[in-house]
Each structure stands twice: as structure tokens, then as C-alpha cells.
User: Fold this.
Amino acid sequence: EDSYKWGRIAASSILHLMEAGSNRMDKEDYYRRLLMEENLSEDFYHKASKMKISSDIRRCVYLIEMQKTFSGQAETILKNLFADGKDDYILKGNDKQLILIKSLASKKEDKQITDDVAKQIVSMINTEVMESVRVTYGRISDTLAGLAKAYREAKMAMEVVKVFYSERETASYT
Assistant:
């Protein structure tokens, strides 16, 4: 009877670990599809609530691009920098880019807050990894569905900065 109880506890623990790993991949897949505008179905907000993603939080999408390939160290620094935000999420873009979906708590001084976050990212990666980095961001989105547009704006800002303002480290869409 004692071994049966321990077996059930072990099985329950394994199921919880599997669910936690699955939830992480589900969130990553959800955000990736959201940014690529592949996730705009009827049960869009239902999926978000099921994964405990708040739909009524203001967010900003940052596109972070290194001159060289992103190292694991740079990604770890970013995850530690934004670890306290439960609604912040980091996705890998390509081998040189990361995407940060950052929740914003206050409504005051949006431009100042978003610009400060971009400068903070640049400063941390320049200091800790000693690599050159460029950060762009789109407008603030009040909805989950608006994140796709914010991501497109961040990508567009990155292209404009590369062509016309190559000396800039941070830039916004506006």
C-alpha cells in the first residue's frame, strides 16, 4: 500500500512536469502564431485565458538584433533582466534576433518608458556580452490581437534604422 501511494505521487509529479513543459511550448507557439497573424481564430482569447495570458494588459513589442549571432549569454541576460514581469515573454526570431513582448504597467509617459527599456537592453548587452546590439519597437498595444501590428512596426523600424540611421542603437516606429 505504501509503494502504491509513492507510485501515485511520482506519477502525479511527472504529469505536472510534462504539463509545465508543454505549457511553455504552447505559450511560445501561441505568441509566435500571434505575431505572424496565424492565430486570429474565434477561440483566440479562450486559448489565451487557458494558458493564463492576460488579454487586457498593455504591451510593447521590441525587436532586438545583434551584429553577430545571438549567444545564449545574451538571451539569459534578457531573461534575467525581465524575469519579474510574469506577462513578459522572449521569443527567438532568427539567429540574430530576439523578440521581447514587454507588459507595461503604467499609462503615463509611454514614450519615455518604452525608450528607457530599449536603452536598458542595449546597455546590458553592450556591457555584459560586449556585443553591439540594436533595439527597435512598435507602438503600444492595448490588446493581444494588436501585438501583430506592433511587431510589424518594430520590424519596419529596424529596416529604416539599418538603411537611414545606421549609427542609432534604439529607435521606435513613430
